[in-house]
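Propose amino acids for all 575 sites.
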């Protein structure tokens, strides 16, 4: 039976999903063991109405990033996970359970591949053809790997990026500075709070008023002002007073940025997180409200695509103009520069940098990236205990401690309580990496009963050694190796060998089909010796890939990290 035969349509979500509406919590198991239970809870957490952007369409975030291919597939995955044995591995291909094999206890329980296409066919056109036949699904990054935790998941990354920008450009703070951006979706919604956490002022344009409402209700944005001039005025006043302030404006990003140019209101920083990676289903053309745009998309997708790309070109032109007039401009990982370059042959679309080479790569060289964990109990106290563990283990890391304080004060949990901390390699005297040290400590706390139920540790796909993405994570690599996808594939193979409980490999993600290959992994810390063994290995191999990938490309910081932390880099070691 093809997907089309069984597809219930976006408005008829599964009754099984209705019966959950989020992850089950507590200590009672529905599955054979905690590793399978973790996979089931993560899948349902991704589709929690508090977490996902459009759960009734299986859309988690990032344009059309889905957790399962269709509702029938969702139900099959749920049934498979409930029955999956302790020595079996479930295979998920683009949101469909396609096989279950006897493997062994130390092997992953679930292996996932999403949206991958063979090079010559690796574009949106083929993807959409195959999607219409029900053969493939857009997995985005953490949507299809069941690791999405809502806007809180990206918050620290956005906060760290802006903190680094502030260090490079403005004496370490955004106080008195105005940041303009657009897109208040699942990821982009973190921007206003990340700006105010850095002491600055944010004006964010967003077409969809429901998204604005959601960010205001969850405390990510302070207020909505409908009039452009009033929003500018309030922002300028707050900046002049040194107040941290954020305002959402219902407006198309291109119109907003052009209006700033017309008024010669030059912000200190300009960026963007609309879903420009997908011109059909992620980005809104100018001149349409949400309902009109949806009608146009339905009736005339070609016209929609054309107008959407035209708006993107105006949007990029306005960012370039603001940059020329003094704003610090950077692309925030949505491939808007790549889209404009490709559609209009505009090399100059890349005249403003991507956020990774500008602000993140030095951390990647040290294997540092967005490590995250969720409390399967559903009990916020479990996460608060892990916050304590961060303080106990890393008392000398001021930035990390400040982050934990800010997160406790200002971040509302969405779905299963969870936390993000950028941790890296940096071994201690016992040879344990930062990530391994933390995971082993948590495993002990679970074993001792200080934490009520297992903690599942995972990360974003955007990490040090897990991505090839020439317009984003691997933009402008020192040795020109931007487009080589061997690295993320080795990363997934290695994490499987190391015994992660779920491992996934995706194409596409934040920058669109054909533009990236990336991976994820999860380890369930259930307090057992087996979990400790896996954690020790996976949280060495995974950040270790970041170190060797950047050392191979010739980055001094990575070569230093490899020397300081004893990471073998065979060719260099034997020279
Ligand atoms: P999303 O689809 O949930 O939200 C995008 C938002 O942009 C929507 O609310 C939409 O209404 C709004 N929008 C679209 N076109 C607009 C326009 N022209 N003007 C104003 N608003 C417009 O996506 P998301 O999860 O928030 O991700 C946003 C983008 O950032 C995606 O391209 C995603 O792939 C990328 N991304 C970046 C990172 C990162 O680390 N920087 C991480 C993940 C995703």
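Proposal:
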């Amino acid at each position: 039976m093809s997907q089309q035969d069984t597809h219930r349509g976006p408005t008829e979500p599964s009754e099984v999903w209705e019966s959950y509406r989020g992850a089950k919590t507590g200590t009672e198991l529905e599955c054979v063991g905690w590793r399978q239970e973790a996979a089931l809870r993560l899948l349902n957490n991704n589709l929690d109405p508090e977490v996902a952007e459009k759960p009734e369409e299986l859309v988690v975030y990032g344009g059309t990033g889905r957790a399962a291919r269709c509702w029938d597939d969702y139900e099959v995955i749920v049934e498979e996970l409930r029955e999956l044995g302790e020595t079996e591995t479930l295979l998920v291909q683009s949101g469909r359970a396609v096989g279950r094999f006897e493997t062994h206890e130390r092997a992953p329980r679930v292996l996932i591949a999403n949206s991958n296409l063979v090079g010559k066919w690796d574009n949106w056109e083929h993807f959409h053809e195959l999607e219409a036949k029900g053969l493939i699904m857009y997995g985005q990054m953490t949507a299809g790997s069941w690791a999405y935790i809502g806007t809180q998941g990206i918050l620290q990354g956005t906060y760290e990026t802006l903190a680094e920008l502030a260090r490079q450009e403005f004496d370490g703070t955004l106080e008195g500075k105005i940041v303009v951006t657009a897109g208040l979706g699942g990821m982009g919604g973190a921007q206003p709070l990340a700006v105010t956490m850095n002491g600055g002022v944010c004006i964010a344009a967003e077409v969809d008023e429901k998204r604005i409402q959601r960010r205001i209700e969850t405390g990510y944005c302070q207020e909505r002002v409908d009039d452009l001039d009033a929003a500018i005025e309030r922002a300028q006043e707050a900046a002049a007073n040194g107040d941290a302030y954020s305002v959402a404006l219902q407006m198309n990003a291109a119109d907003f940025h052009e209006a700033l140019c017309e008024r010669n209101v030059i912000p200190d920083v300009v960026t963007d997180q609309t879903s420009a990676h997908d011109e059909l289903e992620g980005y809104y053309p100018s001149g349409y409200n949400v309902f009109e745009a949806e009608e146009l998309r339905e009736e005339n997708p070609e016209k929609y695509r054309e107008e959407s790309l035209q708006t993107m070109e105006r949007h990029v032109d306005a960012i370039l103009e603001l940059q020329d007039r003094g704003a610090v401009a950077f692309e925030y990982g949505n491939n808007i520069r790549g889209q404009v370059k490709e559609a209009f042959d505009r090399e100059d679309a890349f005249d403003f940098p991507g956020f990774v080479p500008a602000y993140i790569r030095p951390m990647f060289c040290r294997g540092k990236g967005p490590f995250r964990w969720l409390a399967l109990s559903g009990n916020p106290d479990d996460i608060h205990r892990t916050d304590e563990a961060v303080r106990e283990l890393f008392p000398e890391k001021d930035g990390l401690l400040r982050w934990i304080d800010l997160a406790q004060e200002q971040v509302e949990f969405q779905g299963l309580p969870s936390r993000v901390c950028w941790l890296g390699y940096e071994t201690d005297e016992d040879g344990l990496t930062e990530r391994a040290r933390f995971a082993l400590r948590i495993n002990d706390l679970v074993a001792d009963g200080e934490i009520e139920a297992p903690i599942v540790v995972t990360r974003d796909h955007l990490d040090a050694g897990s991505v090839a993405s020439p317009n984003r994570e691997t933009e402008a690599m020192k040795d020109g190796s931007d487009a080589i996808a061997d690295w993320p594939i080795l990363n997934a193979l290695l994490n499987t060998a190391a015994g992660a409980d779920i491992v996934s490999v995706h194409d596409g993600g934040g920058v669109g089909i054909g533009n990236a290959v990336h991976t994820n992994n999860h380890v369930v810390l259930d307090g057992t010796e087996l979990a400790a063994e896996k954690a020790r290995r996976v949280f060495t191999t995974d950040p270790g890939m970041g170190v060797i990938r950047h050392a191979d490309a010739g980055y001094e910081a990575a070569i230093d990290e490899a020397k300081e932390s004893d990471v073998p880099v065979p060719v260099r070691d034997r020279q």
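The two ends are 57 Å apart (CA to CA). The chain has a mean pLDDT of 95.
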